[in-house]
Amino acid sequence: MLLYALRRLIYLVPVAFGVSLLVFALVHLAPGDPISAIVPPDAPKEVVDKLKEYYGFDQPLPVQYLRWLGVTLTGDLGTSIGTGRSVAAEVGSAFGNTIILAIAATLLAFSLAVILGTAAAYAKSRIVDRLVTVISLIGVSVPHFWLAIVLVIIFAVELGVLPPMGIGPENSTGWQFDRAHLAHMVLPTIALSVIPLGVVTRTVRSTVKETLSMEFVTALQAKGMRDSRILFHVLKNAAPTCLAVMGLQAGNLIGGSILIETVFAWPGTGFLLNSAIFRRDLPILQGTTLVLAGFFMLLNLTVDIIQTMVDPRIKRG
Amino acid sequence: MALQSPSLDVGGAILVKPTPTAAGRGYWQSVGRRLRRDPVTLICAAILILLVLASIAAPYLYLADPYKTSMLRRLYPLGSPNHWLGTDELGRDMFARLIYGGRLSLFMGVTPVVCALLIGGSLGILAGFVGGKTNMLIMRIMDVFYAFPSVLLAISLSGAMGAGTENTLLSLTLVFIPPICRVSESVTTQVRGFDFVDAAKASGASAFTIVRVHVLGNVLGPILVYATSLISVAIILAAGLSFLGLGVKPPEPEWGLMLNTLRQAIYVNPVLAALPGVMIFITSICFNLMSDGLRAAMDVKA
Question: A249: nearest CA in chain B?
Fold first, then answer.
């Protein structure tokens, strides 16, 4: 098992190399000079040249890339142009806030999805099955940033029972486990969970349904096993497929929370990325993208490994 | 790596089982017959056709001027005389803007998928049919794009290149090429293993003919089903980019951008502020249901 995990990790190296190239290229995709973002347009040419030399922008691109890669591998992501703080520190604190929201949304979406999906697969009446199908269709079709606005309109503006934005009360410095902070989490968590809820419910429903039609279920019933025990076996068999989809959805939730974080002014990576784009703060843009992509890769790897552990049918070759 | 699909994806991983018979005219006729008996798909198709026609014909529909602002008529509620869907934060007629908005929103949802279909589909067929090193090269490059959550990739690319319609189209196309390429590659690889391809080769058919008749015939169905569901994702993503200020620039009417600018009005006229999202929702649901209907009619396993 350990050997398998190690081999998967080695497979990841060329992909990671490609990712680093793409993230490096982000700065050079930007229109104009990377320097133009920090100096006023009427700056004298000597100053611009000096800054270019200071940042290494006068070097040929491959040299710039290797230099950047070397520095990045030591954990130094550069300095934010907007705030002057280190990018690693900025991304680090934002990442914590994103993870908190992502965990809450993941738990909500996955537990509901398993219950709804299994209920629909087991349902004798068409109504339950139809209802769950409609719920999952809405989940995958609704523009989640619009749903976020609608939630704010209903629960914050009209009913006034939940706060419309922010991570906590006005003087809050960061997330803590108390009533006020939890209240701020409710709406963003719901808005963020609709897409994974829709996708995973569909998967659970179709996988459980397929497993139920397998011969071993009939054999267990003939043997006289209790229904609750059979359910356990069915879920165990359906688990690997569902896990793969869930892992992917969890990763996308973290990368995709930018729109929700923007609506709720939640100080996470998405919010940071959005403000960096409008300040033309390229180091932050680069750093956030790199950290999120790295996390996504590791998450996929973990899911892959867990999947092979759960399901002996998958070859470890 | 596990089977992957974009974030707003519909069915999760797609496992495609191509029908081992080359799709002839009879197949498409039976698909058409099955589609005609499917009321849900027909209704969705009708709604979508109506939306497309309305946005194409918008200038000839005697609508109010969607750009004409008025400081006196700001944020009229629904059902106002002359403005039956109200007016926006600058006093522009909402109904006209919603209809005109469909032009850009639909265009920006459909175009990237069509471009990605052509590029990603060809790359996938090439990788699957040639195999070997070519396959390795193409699919490893796709893996790199798969290492990014799709929303993040779209936003980072658009963010780096700057706001604008062209940049949005470009970044969305880049986001959709890898998933389409993967689906077409896996189907092509499966088709290549069937006996009828060997038979065609033995009877002297050129590679081009084999691809045109046997590969395309089998790949087209699954890819079309997948692409239809991707359009729904693309419309939401494109609107999301405009919502963030990375896509269409004001004062152009576009549903995502309208949601953004109307956000300040949620305390004054909440229903009005939610209207553009309803349009996105309807369009996206119709494309998803169309994809389901096509999947059933074409008998693609998912």
Answer: B7
